[in-house]
Amino acid sequence: MPRIPGVPTREAGPLLRLVYRFARRRFGAVPEPFTVLARHGKLFRAAARHELAAQKASTVLPANVGELAVFRTAQQLGCSWCIDFGTMLQKHEGLDIERLVQIDSYRTSPAYSHQERLAIAYADAMCATPTRATDEQVAELVAEFGQVGVLELTYQIGLENMRARMYSALDVRDQGFTSGDACLIPVPADAPELTGSGE
Fold first, then answer.
1. CATH number of 63-169
2. Deepest of 13, 42, 99, 180, by most Cβ within 10 A of its Cβ?
3. Span 132-167, pLDDT tens digits
4. What does the domain layout of the chain look like in residue ranges?
5. Is residue 112 exposed (0-12), middle (13-18) or buried (19+ Cβ within 10 Å)?
6. Using only C-alpha atoms, what is the Rg of the chain?
């Protein structure tokens, strides 16, 4: 259970119930970070608007490149929820998720293209503390994706960095999206013991 419990459906107002219902239809379950952040209504609404706007604005990079960079960021930062959810998103995009087991050897694995290798290496550089991105690396990325593409890639990696660190700090863990069992996870819970999914 997260360190700050999510808002159960029985405590949610009409708007939050609507958001939960939409999320359940779209993803098979309500993402637990939604329910946790819902404790702070203003931040929840700000985050929802930001996520939707960032998703809508990110149209330059090929889906496989952006999704892999975000996945790698989650993996590097150890956010099991982000890894689980990100794998599901890649699956929904029709991308090959079987190759994710080879991501640590992306530099030599034939499962990854040149563009994907560049993006994964950039995610690694951005996840380091302090960041290790170099002039040469960014120049190579610009040559491949253009300046706008690099800005988009940088933004998405930075955004995932925020998510992964926040969810890890709050102990939000994988929810079963990859296995297809997410609907069995009791989020948001309606029983006092935080069991049962409720509607």
1. 1.20.1290.10
2. 99
3. 999 999 999 999 999 999 999 999 999 999 999 999
4. 11-57, 63-169
5. buried
6. 18
